[in-house]
Amino acid sequence: MHMLVISVSMAEAQLSHLPQNGESNYVQTPYHEDYTHEHGTEQFNGHMNQHHAWLQPQGQRQGYMYDHGEYVFSKRGTNPSAVEREFAQYPHAEPERDGQDHVDKASSRKQVQVGFNLLFNGQASRDDHLAQYKVTFNPYQPDAQPKMFRLEGVGPDGGFDQLQREFLDSAHNSADKQQIAQLQILNKAQLRQIEDLEKKLEDCRRNMRYMEHQLAIVKDEKEGLAVSLKESAHLLQEAKEREHQLQGKVSALQLQVQTLTDKDCEKLQAAEAAVDSLKQQIAELCRSETLSRARQQHERDLVAIREQHEAKILVLQQKLDTQVQALEEQTELSRKLQEQLKQLERQREEERLERAAVINTLTKRLDESQQQCASLLHTGSVQEMNQLHMQLQQVQSAMKISENMNKSLQEELSELKEHVTLYESAIKLGVISLDSNGEWDNQLSDSYVELGIKKVNWKNSRFHSTSPDALPRTDMVFELKAELQRLLGSLKAKRQKISQLQEELQRTQARSQELQDQLDKAERSVRDSRLREISLEKQLEVSSMTAHQEELQQLRKDKELLQDRVEKLESQNRELKQSEEKVRAANGELCTKMREMIQELDQEKQEAAERYERTQQQFRDDVVNHVRTELAEEHSAQMEALQTECQKKVHLLELKLADLNKEMVAVQECYIAICREKDSLEESLQAKMMEERTKFEKETTWEEDHSKVPSLDTQTEGLDSRAELEALLTAQRLALQQEAAQVQARIVEEAVQHVEQDLHKKHMEALTQKVASAVSSARECWLQELTSLPEYKASLQAEREDWERRQEKETAQKVQLSVSAEEKWRREQEVVEAELRDAVRLLQQQLEQSKEEAAARLKAELAQARAAWNQDKQEEISRIQAQNEKDYRSFLDEQRCKLELALKQAKEEASRQKEAEFQQLFRDQQEEWNAQQESRSHAERKRHREEALLEAQRGLRAYLQTACRALLVQAVDQVKQHWKKCSEDQLARMLKEQEDQHKKELNRIRGKRAVAHEHIHLHTKCYQ
């Protein structure tokens, strides 16, 4: 395109002087003309036809203006030319040839004018885009006016004709010049329009490329959005699946909680059954047979305790014998162990040296591997690192999600645990009470059957019978009084017995404490003696045997004395243990029943805890497995998604590369086409220039021939002006040629560099392929030629023989070395095996000794723990017994008050009944006709009284049962809590809580009693 612009500018420069060549023919005024051209721009889809204006009809032409030597072109002007008006003013008589030539030239001028006007007539609707380009023409202004039209030297006779002829010739020349100028203007306008259209075409192509690039970006964004939409849908589905799974887990946990609550309810029912059985046992003890049974049971317990005591004494004697033997064996083993220790220390030093060597080698390898990793990291691509970072972030986000899920599940588990503990505590404290039906009398656990507790039918008892033929009220009262007296006597006897047992317990505890202190002192002395013995043995090994014989003898004597002392202390220890065990057995058998109950409860708790741990472990394993599977699936899905994305990106890049290659091919084709068009345009312009030059030369020759009266001044001035114009034109032409050459050189250099780079790359690739193929072919040929040469074969045979000899020698040497090394290895292995056997024996002996020592320590610690536990339990039992006595006394007082109130109420009711009977008899005597009504009323009153009495008895029985149940539950809870928490602060808190609960229960019982009293009072009022 640059070349086209430069060629057009050169053509303008060559043609610009043509109208100036005939300036000398004009006479009156110099030329001060400005030739302006204004046009718009128009878009075309192809190259514009240069001869389009010449094919238009002549009816659409527009005129031009010529006035006093000034040319003005306007695309909207339609005025007639000034030359025609002048011709109309001056009549003339021209020869036929000149007139014909003038007509031909005028017609050609009209054709040029019509073409020029039609070229710009289509742009009349685009006035807003005009005035982009202007072409101004300033011709040479001579110092003196031409003398063509001077009339001074012309005579009056033939001057007018001569002037008319000269004027016509000048008009003819001016018409030719106008035609040439119009052609030049047309050519310039067409060239400029072509340039504008080519620029617009380039802009359109750029816009098209930009739009295609934007379209590709939008497509990529659309694909990315579609992929992200799919991923979000997949994530949404996964979240929904997780939600369903969590809901299933929650339902499973709720089912587990329900099962646990059902189990707790069953346990509560069993505990209530146990409490009911205990109440039955208490009721049986309240009768006369309780004392005899207690005596028999006490005798049986004493016999069993004695038998256990004798068996324990025998076991302890056997243990003492075994311990003495173990001490003797330990003294022998200590010497052997010292020797083994020395050997082991040597072996450890050797092993340390080997480890140090191994560590050094490993550190070197680690440094090498670190360097390799660093080099790999430096050489690794940025895209891979980014992908790895993205994967790491995704894995970390998944880990955070799983950790949050684990935390939420753990919080739910803790909440469920708290609910279960609250439920258990509420059941233990009696806040949640189950309705007691009639079936609890028939439900007894195996523990009650083993204890020998019988079932009692409370409904068939004498006090709860509802038969109409009941005993009279007075007999019932006397029987209740006798039963109360008997119960009070049994309670006094039991209290005395409990006080005696408590005193004995305190004595035995003090004695056991003293014995325990003595035992501790003895054990300390034994430990000190053992430590001294060990230190002395070490000193003996270190020191020489000859120099310290006296010290050894003294040490042996000390050892014997210490052994005697140890034996004495052990005998004392045995005696103390025997006495302590007797006391413990005597005191422990009193609380066997309570311990059994505690053990059963502990077993139940342990089972519940184990079940809970199992369920928790199973739940944790399930959660871990589920999370692992989810993470694995997510990882696999992410990897698949990344692979698909990478494949898509690679495919897109390949498509883009193919498109770019196509665009490059198209651009190359366009460049080649433009170069061809440029060459064709240059050739056509050169041809036109040659034609115009020839025409101009012909015209100049014709003008020279036909100029009749040229003057010397005009010729000299014309020659001067022409020489100056030619000099200026040559200078401008040279400058334009230089600029065009520079621009063309730049464009050609850039194109050549681009093409050279592409060609160089292709050439280098082809060269590398050719070189590789040539090298491979040359190598193959060389190898073939080498194998065919006899010298090569001979040298090969000689080298092979030498190699075989060397190999035979090396193999023989290696066999000898391996045989010798094997013999050495066998010897070393035998030595090592012997050492290892000795070490294994010594270690086995050490293990046996350590096991025996551990067993002895465990036994001693167990004995101490048992003693401490027994002591704590005895203290707790004494406290519980005292508390039970207090509670029982208060309970008896309350029952006594209740019985007194019941007796008073019964007396009042009996007196009222007697009064009613007297009134009935009186009424029977007075009113015989009302006898039936009185009998009916009497029967109804009796029935109401019996119902009231039965209700009162039932209420009293229910109050007694609830009070006994609450007391037993409190006792069991106290034992559990004391067994769990042994600190003094906790015991004090528990005692305070028990006192508060006891007070609350007393207040509740009193309130219930008042309610019952009010109920009975209301019944009596209703009866009255």
From TrEMBL:
Q: Where is the composition biased (Basic and acidic residues)?
A: 697-708
User: What domain of life does the native source organism fall in?
Assistant: Eukaryota
The coiled-coil segments of this chain are 180-426, 484-618, 793-875
Identify the stretch(es) annotated as Disordered.
Answer: 697-717
Presence of keyword S-adenosyl-L-methionine: no
Note whether Isomerase occurs among the keywords. no
* Example GO BP: centriole replication
Keywords from UniProt, A to Z, are: Coiled coil
Q: Name one GO cellular component term.
A: centrosome
Q: Which InterPro entries match?
A: CEP152/SHC-Transforming (IPR051235)
Q: What is this protein called?
A: Centrosomal protein 152
**Gene of origin?**
CEP152
